[in-house]
Amino acid sequence: MSKKWAISIPASTANLGPGFDSIGIALDKYLELEVELASVWKIDNLSENLPDVPNPQDHLIVQAAEKTARLHGLTLPPCHLSVRSEIPLARGMGSSASAIVAGVELANQVLELGLTAQDKLKVATLMEGHPDNAAASIFGGFTISSSADNGEIHVFHAYHIDASFVLFIPNFELKTEAARNVLPDSYTRQVSAQASATASLLTAAFLSQSFEQAGVYMEQDLFHEPYRLDLIPESREIKIAAKKAGAFGTCISGAGPTLLSLVQKGTEREFISKLAGIFPNFQLVPVEMNRTGIVVKTKNGSAVFSN
């Protein structure tokens, strides 16, 4: 058994407007950890975008790893983790899902569990509560996922979508709990039917790579964006300015406060230059879809696409 592993987990964006709690896309920003068996738990943060957690047992990665071990009737040995992240915290880019998936994969490697992607998603969803971000991080690509009442999780994933995005990453946080609390407890039948139809149209547009149409549907959500936009300063102005700068459409990434614009491939830098200096509280970052999901490298350097 190897005693050292390098694990890479992609960031994710969820919802894409009307695909509420179901659609996710893996992004080419990463949480990376080097894992080595040790006598006691130790975590070294090697970059920004990481929580300061003095007690390793309180760390989300460790909690996910130990939960995975317990679910299989095993005890996880202590490890030394060296962690880097390109995924900002509390910004709607799946930072918590990435940490949970990293922990699940850590246990999978250290304990040689041989988990399938579906197995990993079940554990991650137990901790996350919904599978959209975790599914994207595990499988990579474009995913649609749903949890059934019997505990089964249904997943569709596609890798052929050649879309490009620009993120508007703010210098302020928005906790998912606060973004959840503004949503209504119920929707009328008319609203639900219209919102569901828009999500279906969005899916069809992405799968057929009809990005101009996809951008239209991204901006027609009825489930969450009408309630969350006011929690994000300048979000409505950003959507208008992004459209004028050439975006097909702009939506909240996950629960926010990051916004995501779908743009024509090859125009990312031009798009960003048109908006330079207009929104100083937001960093504009080009990003593409990740297609690998989880990647693990063992001590000898061989890569294992672990999804």
From TrEMBL:
Locations listed in the record: Cytoplasm
Superkingdom of origin: Bacteria
SUPFAM superfamilies named among the record's database cross-references: GHMP Kinase, C-terminal domain, Ribosomal protein S5 domain 2-like
Involved pathway(s): Amino-acid biosynthesis; L-threonine biosynthesis; L-threonine from L-aspartate: step 4/5
Group of enzyme by EC: transferase
Main location: cytoplasm
InterPro entries listed in its UniProt record: GHMP_kinase_C_dom, GHMP_kinase_C_sf, GHMP_kinase_N_dom, GHMP_knse_ATP-bd_CS, Homoserine_kinase, Ribosomal_Su5_D2-typ_SF, Ribsml_uS5_D2-typ_fold_subgr
Ranges in coiled-coil conformation: none
Sequence similarity: Belongs to the GHMP kinase family. Homoserine kinase subfamily.
Protein role: Catalyzes the ATP-dependent phosphorylation of L-homoserine to L-homoserine phosphate.
Name of the molecule in the record: Homoserine kinase
Organism in which the protein naturally occurs: Psychrobacillus soli
Gene: thrB
